[in-house]
Design brief:
Two copies of one chain form a homodimer. The first copy, chain A, is 32% helix and 23% strand. Chain A is an alpha/beta fold and 333 residues long. In chain A, the strands form three sheets. The first copy, chain A, has a six-stranded mixed sheet, with helices on both faces. In chain A, strands 9-8-7-12-10-11 form a six-stranded mixed sheet. A two-stranded antiparallel ribbon of chain A has the order 13-14. The relative contact order of chain A is 0.15. At the A-B interface, helix 1, helix 6, helix 7, strand 11 and strand 14 of A face helix 1, helix 6, helix 7, strand 11 and strand 14 of B.
């Protein structure tokens, strides 16, 4: 896989330099340790929201830093957990006196390092809570996790918690919303192709031209099964069935339907996926009150899609609709 | 290339069905002939903006229909011009009594069919003007054009004209802004890989694993040259040199810098491209006042980037910053 890069060693550094040049009105980028904070951090009297994880999933997380979403993001190297010093520096920078929430995707390295950072921050007198996102129904344990992986719900949690924090809610309240999003949301993804980590220089896995991987992880970790490539509608039905069975959603529920590109799948195909997912949701009696369609939590250039279904109540709808102004998600401002 | 589709024959139809299900608050989708109009069309007393072209470039154009941008888009089949009846129906639907502007990318089929539609509309008493976009500096004539191709400037023209129309300016004034954007903007693209038209089922062209195509068209048309793959910075410098030489931009100019993914190039690589493009612009004395980074005018899943540089004045900045609310571009609302 050809890539539009310079030296593979500098991919994340140069990406961050690009973000800094493109969005100085929204974010500041710090190097050594690397983190991105909103331009006006710390915001006094506001809970600070910090997330982070390996790079390669852009716009998540760095593209979600700004008003109404994250206060800071800690990017690791591609598909590699960030380190506690990044998280600690970020926590210091966004601490506006109402405490800091770490939104942590459930991967072993992320969990361990965010835990260590939380202890270090607490030792400095910064009040920290952490909420784990583990919404991927594909497999129970996986290559990099004990328990389920954190995927699409992370984007939704960051948006909704960001709105709650912006409105001045307390650390307990913002953490509650994060837990609600995680417990009310379920996701599953699939891949048509692998991706190539720049440093590795070869595809993470081999997938024959006539096969696909159902339940893929966002780092290319194995999913549930490999099978012959099927029509888009069949694939969506498989993903939706696994998701719907897991929560379980029930007829009459209002939902947010998030259809995500893994990176290489273009919008024309994503809307074909959205079409069927929406139809399946309605056939099951769900009312799609909100949606999101696009590449928001990606795996480099991997072709594939993931679907996230989140049960909504009026509080979550309110938090979703609230203004947001970040490089990757923007409305109302 | 594996695709997330059902029957290749239904790709555009099913995509449009997905758009209709996802964005009923913003757009209405009509079938047979196919076109997308903003949900509240026609807007009385407002110039109606219509664009269109082959599908496969999403979010352009259908994703730019909504408040503050296009009133209607006419999607052809993938990489195939829409037909005059689509354009005529769209013109009828968006005619709010102040006339209709066709924004036409310079490809032979698009030009011919928009011309015919303009005549048909005029015969019905709808005042129509057309502006041609031909900003691609790569080649003088090409496979599907007499003269230069219309590429990235189309997105910028649709946004800026949309703002002007929304503010109630006249057809002459909106057309003037469109011509200004086209005459002040220059673009060039490159590809790392081909794309595959669903109906064709095989890549549009072959590009060896160690080569790239400089000056590619958005339908995979040949560009200036093929050469060995180079580091991202070198590629950006080549594109910027061709663009800067062509206008010519001069030191002190304020510009909008638009770094676009051809579809398959992920955001992490796009910011690496943005970084160098911004640096080159500044080295040439340009002041980057606004920017846009992302996949906005794509070529299915093609990996590659294009760069558009647009000279700005206060009028264009005003039109750029104005609120926009479409599936593909949204701020201020």
């Amino acid at each position: 896989m050809k890539k539009f890069i310079n030296n593979p060693v500098n991919v994340v550094k140069e990406e961050l330099e690009g973000i800094a040049l493109a969005h100085p009105d929204l974010v500041q980028v710090y190097f050594g340790p690397n983190y991105i904070v909103r331009a006006d951090a710390p915001v006094k009297g506001k809970v600070g929201l910090v997330s982070g994880g390996g790079s390669g999933h852009e716009p998540m997380h760095g593209g979600f830093v700004g008003r109404g979403m994250l206060d800071a993001a800690c990017p690791g190297e591609v598909f590699t957990s960030p380190t506690p010093d990044q998280m600690l520096e970020a926590a210091r920078m966004v601490n506006g006196g109402r405490g800091v929430l770490f939104i942590v995707k459930n991967y072993t390295g992320d969990v361990m390092n965010f835990e260590m950072a939380a202890e270090l921050a607490a030792a400095e007198g910064i009040e920290v809570q952490s909420v784990l996102i583990d919404d991927d129904v594909a497999v129970e344990d996986s290559l990099y996790t004990a328990g389920r992986r954190g995927v699409g719900c992370t984007v939704l949690a960051e948006k909704m918690c960001g709105a709650a924090a912006e409105e001045g809610r307390s650390l307990d309240e913002v953490a509650d919303i994060c837990r609600k999003v995680n417990s009310w949301g379920r996701s599953m993804g699939m891949a048509l192709t692998s991706c190539t980590v720049p440093h590795a220089g070869r595809p993470t896995f081999d997938l024959p031209e006539d096969e696909m991987e159902i339940g893929i992880g966002i780092h290319g970790e194995p999913g549930r099964t490999r099978m012959a490539l099927k029509p888009a509608d069949d694939i969506v039905e498989m993903l939706m069935e696994a998701i719907l069975k897991d929560l379980p959603f029930k007829s009459g529920d209002e939902v947010l339907l998030f259809v995500n590109s893994m990176g290489g799948t273009p919008l024309v195909e994503l809307y074909i996926a959205y079409r069927r997912a929406h139809q399946v949701a309605e056939k099951n009696g769900l009312k799609v009150r909100r949606n999101l369609v696009g590449p928001y939590i990606t795996s480099l250039e991997m072709a594939g899609v993931s679907i996230t279904l989140l049960k909504l109540d009026e509080e979550l709808i309110h938090c979703w609709d609230a203004p947001v102004y970040t490089p990757g998600l923007r409305w109302g401002i």
